[in-house]
């Protein structure tokens, strides 16, 4: 007797397969016969591994308007507002907001999140709060924490010490922000320093790198070099990389092979980069998204990250990785059918690889986590930002909703049929 049997779903590659679950594992796929305590009929629906977000700020989420809204809409005003908020927010408030966000995430089928945690204040209340959140949601969301020196590794007296303190407290990943250090040289030194720390401690590293419109901000070059030097490979990631949007094309033709050689990953955050970058431009106004297709053509793994939801940097957001991929698809002009499918893979498989998730997928033996979408295939899921009909995490149904079958008065036909290409 299986615990859960999902019948007749269509997998992202188009295969139709049942999925049988016992405990927290997938125990059979293909055509499965047998009894189950609970059966879900997914005929005609898309059954996907869960969504994964490799870049988020959970210590700041759901704080929009605190202590006031970001009037200029710039990254720098966002950092300054957060600088006030992080010293007045209590541990309990941060936990409460983060848990609410995790509820939203689970309902959207987003079951693994890498979140940067600001380590700048000596009180490290954000770290304390996020460690507690990681513990509380462990049964249904895999949370990875990054020690993130928001105000720079060297720009504050205790910046470097606090990153080490956070890692000692149990934070998983080394973070950095080289373009925010005082000088280009100090930014480059922070890359050498942080990659050494990651290598010595056997940790992953994920750096906010070159999140600027300055074409001369070239820390990704140093990051790639240090990743190669220490053999960090796919355990390293550069987040944002927006300066690459504005760089000279000839220089980029040298840079991309260096990044590919290092084996590091790239994490653009389209919702945020399209709103924060280019704010100092008149017209033409730069989009500020890094060179996604060009990196993928070099074999570099690129994932889409959410970055922010309702915080000092971003006034919208719903924890829906389909929104993230939808924006990325538009801004990076990934409209070919293969590119649209790739965008879906970016917020599932590619992001899972970036986070190093074990047992991720829908094969026998994988962790029994998945999402059932009211769509026929990945492209349709993107087009509709399809309803999550059910979300299963580690063998348990953690969210479900009934199908949107509202009928139009005009035709009497189900709205779903009009929207879906069945
Ligand atoms: Fe970020």
3D architecture notes:
- The chain has 14 helices and 15 strands.
- α2 packs parallel to α3 and α6 (219-230) packs parallel to α8.
- The protein has helices spanning 75-88, 91-107, 125-137, 159-169, 184-201, 219-230, 243-246, 249-262, 270-276, 292-297, 321-331, 337-355, 378-384, 415-419; strands at residues 2-10, 16-22, 25-30, 36-41, 46-48, 51-56, 110-118, 142-148, 173-176, 204-209, 236-240, 265-267, 370-373, 388-393, 396-400.
- The protein has 422 residues and is α/β, with parallel strands linked by helices.
- β14 and β15 form a beta hairpin.
- Strands 6-7-8-9-10-11-12 form a seven-stranded parallel beta sheet. The protein has a four-stranded mixed beta sheet with strand order 3-2-1-4, with no helix packed on it.
- It folds into two domains: 2-49 and 361-410, Urease, subunit C, domain 1; 51-355, Metal-dependent hydrolases (TIM Barrel, Alpha-Beta Barrel), CATH 3.20.20.
- The mean pLDDT is 95.
- Helices cover 37% and strands 20% of the residues.
- The structure holds fe (ii) ion.
- Fe (ii) ion binds next to loops.
